[in-house]
Design a protein that fits this description.
By secondary structure, the chain is mainly alpha-helical. It has 2 domains: 2-207, no CATH class; 212-253. Helices cover 69% and strands 4% of the residues. The chain is built from 8 helices and 4 strands. Helix 1 packs antiparallel against helix 2 (21-51) and helix 3 packs antiparallel against helix 7. The two termini are 23 Å apart.
C-alpha cells in the first residue's frame, strides 16, 4: 500500500514533465496502479478484520496470500467501486463541459456494478462474519445499514435528475454510513480472532493508559479544529470549476 501511494504521488508529479505520448501513458498506468491497489488492499484489510484473523497470544498465524480470500477480495472490490463512483462524482462537479459529462456517465455506469457488489457483500457478510450479531441484539442499530442503502440508492436518483452535487453528498453519506455499519458491527472488537474470541483485540484490552488518553484528547481538541478549518479554507480557495482554459498546459492535471 505504501509503495502504491508513493508511486501515485510520483506519477502525478512526473506525468507533466514531458509532452511525449509514451511518457504520459506510462505515468497514467502508474497513476492507475497507485490508486487502484491501495483502494483494493484497504478493502481486503477491512474484509479480513470483519471475518476475523487467525491470531492468538503468539501473534498472527496466517500469510499475506491467505488475506486474499474470497470475502476479502469482495470487500476490496466494494471499496474500489465505492471510490470510483465517489471520485467520478467529484470530477463531475469540479469540471466543465465534456469531462464533467464523461465523469457523470462513468459514475452512473459504475453505480450499477457497485449495487451488485454491495448486495453480494451484504449477503456474504451474513455467512462469513459475525458482523450482524450486534444488530440482531439491538434492532435500532439497523439504522446505519438502512441509511447506507438509502443513500446509495439516492446517488442514482440524483444522477438521473442531473443533480450531481446532491449525488456527491449522497455518496459522502454512503461512505460514512458504511463505515459506521462496519464499526458498530465489530464493537467492542478492534481485530477479532478467528481462532478463539478470547484472543481478540478489543477496545478494552488494547486501549492506552488513562494518562495517555487524556493527553491525546487535549491534542485532538487543539489540532482537529485546525485541520477542519484548513480543509474548509482550501475547499473555498479551489471551489471554482476547472475548465480546459484554466487547467494550463495539456500535461497538467
Amino acid at each position: 500500500i505504501l509503495f502504491s501511494l508513493i508511486l501515485r504521488g510520483v506519477a502525478l508529479e512526473f506525468r507533466g514533465l514531458s509532452s511525449g505520448e509514451s511518457w504520459k501513458k506510462n505515468w497514467d498506468r502508474a497513476l492507475f496502479a497507485g490508486s487502484f491497489i491501495p483502494s483494493l488492499l484497504f478493502g481486503v484489510a477491512f474484509g479480513n478484520i470483519f471475518q476475523g484473523l487467525p491470531m492468538d497470544v503468539n501473534g498472527y498465524h496466517g500469510s499475506l496470500l491467505s488475506l486474499l480470500n474470497p470475502y476479502g477480495l469482495l470487500t476490496g472490490l466494494f471499496f474500489v467501486l465505492l471510490f470510483i463512483v465517489h471520485g467520478s462524482l467529484w470530477i463531475s462537479i469540479k469540471t466543465e463541459a465534456d469531462l464533467a459529462g464523461r465523469a457523470s456517465r462513468l459514475a452512473g455506469s459504475a453505480w450499477f456494478v457497485l449495487l451488485v457488489i454491495a448486495v453480494s457483500f451484504l449477503v456474504f457478510t451474513a455467512f462469513a462474519t459475525n458482523l450482524y450479531t450486534n444488530y440482531l441484539d439491538n434492532f435500532i442499530l439497523f439504522l446505519f445499514p438502512i441509511l447506507a442503502v438509502l443513500s446509495l440508492l439516492g446517488i442514482k436518483l440524483f444522477l438521473t435528475l442531473n443533480r450531481n452535487l446532491a449525488a456527491f453528498y449522497a455518496s459522502c453519506v454512503t461512505i460514512v454510513m458504511v463505515t459506521f455499519t462496519g464499526v458498530v458491527g465489530l464493537f467492542p472488537n478492534l481485530i477479532p480472532s478467528s481462532i478463539d474470541p478470547n484472543y481478540s483485540l478489543t477496545i478494552y484490552n488494547s486501549s492506552s493508559s488513562v494518562y495517555t488518553l487524556k493527553i491525546m484528547t487535549v491534542v485532538a481538541l487543539i489540532f482537529v479544529p485546525i485541520v477542519i478549518v484548513y480543509q474548509i479554507w482550501s475547499y473555498r480557495v479551489f471551489r471554482s470549476r476547472l475548465s480546459p482554459d484554466a487547467s494550463g498546459e495539456e500535461g497538467h492535471y
